[in-house]
Amino acid sequence: MFDHPSQFLDALENLPVASAEFRDLALKRQAQLTKPAGALGRLEDIAIWLAGWQAREKPVVDRVTALLFAGNHGVVEEGVSPFPASVTAQMVENFKQGGAAINALTQQFGHELSVIPLDLERPTRNMTVDAAMSEDELLDVINIGAAAVNDCSADVIYFGEMGIGNTTTAAAIAAAVFGGEGASWAGPGTGLEKAGVVHKASVIDRALALHRSELSNPVEIMRRLGGRELAAIMGGVVAARLKRLPVILDGFVVTAAVAPLCVSADQRIKRDVLAHCIAGHCSAEPGHIRLLEELGLKPLLTLDMRLGEGTGAALAAELVRGAVSTHNQMATFAEAQISGGEV
Amino acid sequence: MFDHPSQFLDALENLPVASAEFRDLALKRQAQLTKPAGALGRLEDIAIWLAGWQAREKPVVDRVTALLFAGNHGVVEEGVSPFPASVTAQMVENFKQGGAAINALTQQFGHELSVIPLDLERPTRNMTVDAAMSEDELLDVINIGAAAVNDCSADVIYFGEMGIGNTTTAAAIAAAVFGGEGASWAGPGTGLEKAGVVHKASVIDRALALHRSELSNPVEIMRRLGGRELAAIMGGVVAARLKRLPVILDGFVVTAAVAPLCVSADQRIKRDVLAHCIAGHCSAEPGHIRLLEELGLKPLLTLDMRLGEGTGAALAAELVRGAVSTHNQMATFAEAQISGGEV
What we know:
Rossmann fold, homodimer, alpha/beta, 5 strands
């Protein structure tokens, strides 16, 4: 799909937008439904947002698909996680056997789940000593993510991730995009104690120092500091935008994976690149709330979860379904012959 | 069910509690599931809470029932709502036709919905001039609420309400239980402008002044300041507790309806009375967040909704289902043969 990094960067400067016509139709419909104006709060916003991206007055959320990418990280050799890297492959097996949290949630809610391990036996390079990926390696996984989205006929999608060490990667990317030292983005991840978080922050600082002068565009940020699963998600979110497919973002790692997309060619932050995305859940991982604020995203849920896998987005998808059900099925005041308010 | 107010008050002093044994079993199970300890955050708390109340290591949320009570309020003659009282009956008809927000949500999520109008042609008395209900009138609706719960074989229930004027009633009850003037609890309800909210607060203050010396127990608070739908919910929540049935609370009005239950015989606030309840959603109605804080309840959702009908609880019920699905279906570390963390 993308043969060269410049092609990917060009796509970011020429993104399709939502349909203003259908957004307005949905807005008008909301005003006529049998409830006080605005009384469904964010459910109304969600329905109107979806109407614009799907170009339908009554949007559809029948098919919801989770794309879960897994990758391994060279930086794990710096001792940034309490779990060994082998757990990534073990958890992929667990996903395939149906034993993980995301399996339970997707089954409960009738979402489709695709699990896509990315070269687990070949971790990225340790970002404190080299770029994590070569240009070709990066393009490969960006294209895998984009292809997964292009092959998918869902009405709404979300991304999950699994990769021991990837909150370190995510924190480094967040620092590269929005500034700040490792300490302002590093958190306990799967369960580091305080000393472990301090060490993790210092590892991030070393990576940032090594690559600092080269972190001027989304491709280089992801290539130098990223991981395969994050790059696949970044590619997938762009592919979703190109087909105007709405995306529910999951936790800290998924949000960090898409943050580089907002770094524009003139070095400003362009939040509009993520206009087709909503934030499903704010993670307990401490960097996430700041990351969401920097991106102008207000999470639908804050449930102290910090698991990844797409679990936060899975729950949020049901709120989206609820929003659409009210928007589509409620009677208007005229249909129900109900007296309007005096104000 | 309750022949006399004293019987109702006695029940509150002798409430059954959750099973510590099954709560502990659920807690132990959570520690073995394939995720970092605590990584599912509030989902874990929900599953453990349900396990205790249902007395099952693996709780069940197959059947979810919404009980929606509607009532009319004499205080509407004071001009506290932009909508006329006739809208209550019109909305009940809308519920029966399937055109309201709660219909859309219960249908989307497969919840059962019962709509129970309470003497709509006979509003309660205007609380600024008299007690809203007689003792018999109050007991009647408490028992209707309790009977609806007793007849219900759901795994989890929630309550909805509809009643033009009932945010005024709810604010008066909140003030009676937790103190403060009308202004600290009154909000726009269905859409009052600022001047309307000021007037509403003054109406509440008049009611509080009239009844102040008699507001020493749950029955008198509800009888003097309440409404039929609120009393039915209060009765239903006690009946649920007596059968150890978990309850998801909805918005400001439902929460206010159960707040009097926490006023104990010795005039202290006993939050444990609501231990079988979780807060589904924090309403945009400004008094709700304070009310939840006073009751020690942390809402699962905050989506700027302010509609009532049970809509906030309906959405929260799907989070509860998600919580239980992870708790029940996830593999343990041993089952999945996954390496544990080092911390």
